Amino acid sequence: MLITMIVLKNLIDGDWREGDSIFASTNPSNLDEIVAQCVSGSADQVMESIAAAKTAFAEWSHSSILLRHDILMRVASELREREVELGRLVSCEQGKTLREATAEVVRAAQIFEFFAGECLRIQGEKLASVRPGVEVDITREALGVIGLITPWNIPIAIPAWKIAPALAYGNCIVFKPAELVSATAWHLVDIICRAGVPQGVLNLVMGSGKVIGSAMARSPDIDGISFTGSTTTGRTIATNCAEHGTKLQMEMGGKNPLVVLADADMDLALDCAIDSAFFATGQRCTAASRLIVEDAIHDYFVQALIERMKAIKIGHALDPATDIGPVVSEGQLEQNLRYIDIGQGEGATLAFGGSRIEGTTRGYFMQPALFSSASNGMRICQEEIFGPVAAVTRVADYDEALQVANDTQFGLSAGICTRNLACAMHFRRNVAAGIVAVNLPTAGADFHVPFGGRKASSLGPREQGRSAIEFYTTTKTSYLRC
Ligand code: ADP
User: Fold this and answer.
1) Residues 285, 381, 417, 423: which is the catalytic one?
2) Least CB-packed of 6, 35, 282, 366 within 10 Å?
């Protein structure tokens, strides 16, 4: 078992360093259990890390692609060897069920394997010039020093899908994880460090967003920031970065719709709704929090959904019988409950759940909530709650469903359940989202294809898959007279 009271330190220029203070992460399934203690760094440590990364960049950016491939493969194999142990850590620190947590560790390994392969496939282009006797080469070079700022909801796979491409393409890193899941981040960094990454290439500075994250965003010496988190924080970072023209990759909020048409396979649609809205405690940016249901099946669907919700077991994340673990923190639980009041105040009907519940241990357990009679203009349909709270909106037909689905500032993922091929195809073409799911949950993306959204959900090049190269490299166009 990883849980230990050793204080986990920051990694700066190859050394594990003390910080300014120490903070503890507690288990949201059991508040009497401290999962880890970590140091909280300082703005000065951010500056030292950036300087170390800058120095290391000269060599690392020109290092052998085979060296980088081999390091990433070693990381992947250690993640796979330790998937049970690390899954337990993720589960204890973040609160997702052991099944979800272990799958996330495996996902992290798959990402490192994918980008190990990508090291060997960095392509350029060669074109004839419009000027006779001149050739044009377009090559890709590492961007430089990259700042990675990550959230608490996917504590190992999100860092993996930023760190793996950053290293694969020859960049150096300053990594700041969310405080709530710092121990998970620390273990990932420890694995990468021992896999042979040279001194200064990967730096870890744990601590608060306001101190560490803000120092990163304000630094003129960081070439790019890849961030995942809330839209509000993302916009603050983008504003700070604008001053120095720092390249940005931002994955932010969502208010994702799942449309259910009358002709859908009802069992499948109910499965999709439960998974999309409530699994991982609704704490996924691709979760569906708006269920847009065609009038003809609306009443049946709401009733059947409530029956399924009654059967969901909420409890300690390590209990094999648990379907949904606790909410991650007190602050998040308060936010969820506040939105339950807001929804009722706005006139939506709280059809099921929505209250804090007791578990066998002292944890942040909440009964998933379903609102009905919600209209899309309500705050519960427009603002990201980031908890197990979904609202059903009744629509007359497919055309209204599409209009409601697109009536949001966000555009991350969107789903439709239907047997009508014409509607499915029309939805796929016309929904304003970066990810579309037909007869599938809105959450649960593959690791080898682009991930990202539109409108207020995303800014900058897509993450993951072959698209990752767009952010982590910069092109050089060379003209040669032969
Ligand atoms: P949450 O707190 O719900 O995870 P945030 O978007 O606030 O959502 O946090 C995502 C990440 O951004 C975390 O690592 C957090 O510490 C960091 N962060 C928070 N505020 C700032 C800020 N002002 N500048 C840079 N990073 C920040």
Assistant:
1) 285
2) 6
Mean pLDDT of 234-250: 97
Q: What is the mean pLDDT of residues 151-180?
A: 98
Q: What is the chain's mean pLDDT, rounded? A: 97
Nearest CA to ligand 1 atom 19: 209
Helical pair 398-406 and 421-430, crossing angle rounded to 10 deg: 20
Whether residue 230 has its Cβ less than 6 Å from ligand 1: yes
The residue whose C-alpha atom lies closest to atom 20 belonging to ligand 1 is 209
The mean per-residue pLDDT over the stretch 242-249 comes to 97
Mean pLDDT of 423-448: 97
pLDDT of 192 > 60? The answer is yes
DSSP secondary structure string, 256-294?
Answer: EEEEE-TTS-HHHHHHHHHHHHHGGGG-STT-EEEEEEE
Q: Is the CB of 151 under 6 A from ligand 1?
A: yes
Quick check: CB of 150 below 6 Å from ligand 1? yes
CB 142 within 8 A of CB 169: yes
Report d(CA 276, CA 383) in Å as an integer.
17
Q: What is the DSSP string of 285-353?
A: TT-EEEEEEEHHHHHHHHHHHHHHHHHPPB--TT-TT-SB---S-HHHHHHHHHHHHHHHHHT-EEEE-
Strands 413-417 and 256-260: parallel
149 CB near ligand 1 (under 6 Å): yes
- Whether residue 413 contacts residue 256, with contact meaning beta carbons closer than 8 Å, is answered with yes
pLDDT at residue 1, rounded to an integer:
46
pTM: 0.97
Evaluate: CB of 237 within 6 angstroms of ligand 1.
yes
Q: How far apart are CA 467 and CA 452, in angstroms?
A: 10
8 A C-beta contact, residue 383 and residue 400: no
Enter the tokens of residue 342. Answer: 């807001």
Q: Would you state the pLDDT for residue 5?
A: 75
Joined together, the tokens standing for residue 111 give 């990402």
Residue 4 has pLDDT above 80, yes or no: no
Q: Looking at ligand 1, which atom is closest to the CA of residue 179?
A: 16
In the chain the domains, ranked by start, together with CATH numbers, are 7-252+457-481 (3.40.605.10), 256-438 (3.40.309.10)
Mutate to test the pocket of ligand 1, among 149, 233, 457 (most ligand atoms within 8 A of CB): 233
The Cα-based distances of 392 to 271, 280, 346 in angstroms read 15, 20, 14
Atom of ligand 1 at shortest range from CA of 231: 6
> Does 217 contact ligand 1 (Cβ within 6 A)?
yes
Q: Assess whether the C-beta atom of 229 lies below 6 angstroms from ligand 1.
A: yes
Question: Catalytic: 251?
Answer: yes
Residue of 48, 78, 251, 384 marked active site: 251
**What is the pLDDT averaged over residues 172-198?**
98
